[in-house]
Amino acid sequence: MVRYPRLDEPDPSQVDESTLGIHYESFEVGLHFPLPPFARGWLCHYGIVPAQLHPNGWAQLVGFSIPCHQREMVPSMLFNYFYLLRKASKDR
Prior knowledge:
This protein is mainly alpha-helical. It has helices at about 25-30, 35-45, 55-70, 80. It starts with about 25 loop residues before the first helix and ends in a 10-residue tail after the last helix.
């Protein structure tokens, strides 16, 4: 089930353990469940969960996998050759 935070919720970022908070925009750029094996492997490699990836990150993962599938290639960690994962700076 997908839902927006309610206005009466004190802090939408604080969710219970049965809930996964993800940017709605991530779904608009191609995130879907169940996660494709490429996305699951990439997240596991870095030790992050889907909610920790910015929508632009999902757009890059999805965008990379489309031409791979069109060429009948399996997306792989080759993604890391083209893109760099880094923490967001505190001053942004």
